[in-house]
Design a protein that fits this description.
By secondary structure, the protein is an alpha+beta fold. The chain folds into three domains: 114 residues, Acyl-CoA dehydrogenase/oxidase, N-terminal domain (Butyryl-Coa Dehydrogenase, subunit A, domain 1); 112 residues, Butyryl-CoA Dehydrogenase, subunit A, domain 2; 144 residues, Butyryl-CoA Dehydrogenase, subunit A, domain 3 (Up-down Bundle), CATH 1.20.140.10. 48% of the residues lie in helices and 14% in strands. The strands form two sheets. The chain has a four-stranded mixed sheet with strand order 1-4-5-8, covered by helices on one side. Helix 1 packs parallel to helix 4, helix 6 runs antiparallel to helix 8 and helix 9 packs antiparallel against helix 10.
Amino acid sequence: MTATAQAPTVADIHASIGRICEGFDLDYWERMDRDVRFPIEFWRALGEAGWHRILVPREHGGLGLGMRAIAAAIEETARGGAGQAGALFFVLSPIFGSLPISRHGTPEQRATYLPGLATGEDEFCMGLTEPEAGSNTLRITTTARRDGDDWLVSGRKIWISGVERARAMLLVARTTPYDPARPRHGITLFLLDHPAAARGFTFTPMNKLALRVVHSHRLTLGDVRIPGANVLGEVDNGLPILFEVLNPERISGAAGALGHTDLCIRLAVERARTRAPFGKPIGSYQSIAFPLARLSAELAGARMLTYHAADTFDRGDPAIVETTNAKLVAASISEQAAEHAFHVYGGMAFEREQHVERLLRDAKLNRTAPVTEEMSLAHIAQHVLGLPRQTS
């Protein structure tokens, strides 16, 4: 595929990534999870097929597509064996890097970062979450202060994935202290080049339960120097840009949950057809079959919600309610599907080589990240149903 070729359709994306996934079976993904190793072979295969280019504008070597295309790529990757981890390949670099830079970067920033993101030679990560702030982005305490034409950034971050591989980090800091009267003011986005090698920047890997194919880290920043030219957007007014990143991240989580659910159902159905300890397949029992049938129906509904959210975002709408609905529903059914697959496999589910235990671990995380289920419900209660702001 070339950047000047006719833009691929969603069907093209499903077909192409489906073929790529055929070369990376479930045993491959189990090894990556067990060894806590980034699937570099799969990453390179995506690049060779041109799928790092999805969100990069055509003038910088990309395809100039949107979130519907990303959602299709993620769903197919997850279905093909990666499960929920499939979302990571299209979040860390395309959504944390290509999307905000193509929309809000200066001409110099676009020329610096987008060509490498298009080829997959360069990777991105994002430094947002903090130990104390959690989901409350407005209360982050990482600060940036001016030093001549530069900025010095200090603070702590947690659960930051892909740092050790990243060409640059989309780093979120406060340039003006939090003011309850203007809580959204004072957030600034920075592009930190080569974070792992930056002076004053230290990171420690976290031993995590799920999505182990990408390392996550604790970060400490002590007066890390960033040139003023590396501010993305306006000083003190980075929150709107950040939301343009967080909502697509939630669409991506929902799309990963679709493929994850589909994979869990497929594995459970295969097991239910072939396991016959009492002379007939266990799939003939309603306690096994009916939950699978319900999950299949609910998956169809979650898919409609997810692609509706992607289409809404691509039309220029923030799609806050749509992304919240999609992520909430898709994450819920992915966990249900993983739990039922675990149940169908019985005692064998505890063997790693059966794959369902990995899928159950990853599905648990999707209920929490990138936004908790409770935060989603609170948003719907307040902004859709008109109920008072939730306090407990």
